[in-house]
Amino acid sequence: MEIWNLFTDFIVQSITFFTHEVGVSQAAAIILFTVIGRLVLMPINLVAMANMVRNKKAIAALKPELDSIKSNYKDQPSEIAKLTMALYKKHNIKFIDKKSVINMASQGVFGLGTFQALQQIVLNSKFAWITSIAKPDIALSLLVGAITYLSMMMMPGSAEQTSTLLFLIPAIICVVTLVNFPSAIGLYWATSSSTSLLQSLLVNKYFKNHQPQHAL
Fold first, then answer.
1. Which residues, in sequence order, are CB contacts of 112 under 8 Å at separation 6+?
2. What is the pTM (predicted TM-score) of this model?
3. For residues 50 and 207, is the Cβ–Cβ distance under 8 A?
4. How do residues 146-176 score in pLDDT, each as one tens digit?
């Protein structure tokens, strides 16, 4: 689509601008562009994170009622599901709402657009121990996998009892994917995941001693 091509061209031109006009390396330009992009998307991202925390707190408060439903209807899973959803609706607990959809869509569009744009650029930059960001780097892939794991584990609203495997699987997929792509994509992914991790830490810290009264 022409609009999509304009979007990816904008990303290419932005990275080129940072490289040629600002005078930074391609690696630094990718990191800088990613940080700016994530800052632009931060407001809706923080709203979605805040609502996830509030949902978690609300569900924790309803635990006695939820346990009672499971105990009274332990042989009727359909009734448990029905009553649980009714309880969530009564207390305005929504796992998918307009804010979360917008957040996921915007993150997806930004990520896919950057991924495609980086494949259009002739890469010839170095970064830290990486001799060329045009080639895959196993160490960077492992680092990105670790950051991805931490960012998911620290995500606001994630349940403490969630299986570690559910966090490990995306991290492993991340590593397997990145060992087959230029390190430039790994730099984008590392920067984006690091930003998500920082946002999660900030949101968790804010809500640690604050009990919100209303959803954003």
1. none
2. 0.80
3. yes
4. 998 888 888 766 655 456 777 788 889 889 9
